[in-house]
Amino acid sequence: MTKTTHDMLRSLPKIEEILRSTRVESLLERLPRPLVADLVRDTVERTRAEILAGTRGECDSETIIDDVIAHALALEHPSLRRVINASGVIVHTNLGRSVLADAAVEAVTSVARGYSTLEYNPAALARGSRHDHCEKLICALTGAEAAIAVNNNAAAVMMVLTEFAAGGEAIVSRGELVEIGGSFRVPDIMRLSNADMVEVGTTNKTHIPDYEHALTDHTAMLLKVHPSNYRMIGFTESVGLHDLHTLANRENARREQAWEHGVTDSRDTESINRDVLVYEDQGSGAFVRLACFGSYAEPTVAESLDQGADLVSFSGDKLLGGPQAGIIVGSKHLIDRLKKNPLARVLRLDKMTLAALEATLRLYLDEQCALSEIPTLRMLSEPAEAVWKRAETLMAALEQSLPPRCATVSVIPEIARAGGGALPMCDIDTYAVQVTFLRGNALDCERYLVAGRPIPIICRLKKETLLCDARTLVDPYEITEITAAFTEYFTRMDDQTTREDHIGK
Ligand SMILES: *Cc1c(COP(=O)(O)O)cnc(C)c1O
To answer: Which protein residues are within 6 Å of ligand 1, measured from CB?
Structure first.
């Protein structure tokens, strides 16, 4: 007779009973009691929910205690830790986006280990501003008059809209109202910053008259949003920054004249007092045009400014290859207003990020140096032959180390991706080591590589095989680690089969 759900729920052990068990009591020597009690309660409740959902059968106290202990042990190990990215996605948001350059890591360590000049100006023997560390470098590299860096690009967009478009209207093309991974949606940020969004054009085509007709005395901004990892191909058209700049100039001249002549149909004179700004949310934010991507290369920040954007914002950890940050560049009088906005305080960067950002920016002073020292740029631009060599090294290591007749390994040409919403149309030639399973299987092995290793290894699953892309490996040590992990996977399986054989006899 099978037990009913009701019976199974009733036979679940009591929380007090589990807390009194010797195995759980021994946990109390290492962890505070309220924490252990929470773990027990969570585990029992989770089990109850699983029984109700029909995903779990009867469960005795020993099984629940095993669960509690596994969760308790997990607390003693770092949750945020190193992984090996063998996925071939270079700027992988789930895996921490950009890997920092050595110089950036050293800068972080140095300011973290001791006190720093975060808000101190040693030349003047006086208080300084944290905004000063990166501003000159950003300006030198983009040709901007002024710059400010905040927590991330979403924060930068929020700050620009709040300062310059709150209470007014921001015009944006329907073709640019995209959602960017991790729930960043322009309409939501717009609402949050109290700006009225005016959508113009259609999904595939927007023309300059669409913007023109939408202009009112309340227009505060023409907003251009980089479509990130989304591209329309075929019958499409969008308006460039240069044309938006011309339109904004014309409107600003008209307002000036209307103001001088006292003819304004606006109810409040406040909105007519402000200029229409052209702002681009550039997303990925490139400083150098990567020649290897030809016409697909993302436009640089300097190009956007040249074409007439008053303000441009972008991420620090996408194509730039630095730490998480949002950088805003543009005219000095605009950036000065942002620096005074209370949000600049709310969204400010900490010393470690500033140190990493400053060090990364300094590498850009010599473009060749940036290309070779900044891991994101290096991985994007590394010739396929160099990647092939690394793949061959990994293959040779696997061939040497794997137990016999468990898998075949080969190096195959593959396609890597830039990620981070950049260069979505670019197929980046790469090489991967393909593991084809003679014993075990790809899914099972993938689970072991990710969940069963102190340093998870993220590969790609392809038709019952596992691919390790050599383009995104950042350290020779990772080849050793991948080899050890695959070897261990098969060896464990051997041990298990041997055990089972013995039991069978
Ligand atoms: C990535 C991206 C953002 C968000 O930037 P974060 O640095 O992740 O906050 C905003 N806009 C565009 C166009 C993007 O590509």
So the answer is: 152-154, 157, 180, 184, 225-226, 228, 281, 283-284, 315, 326, 421
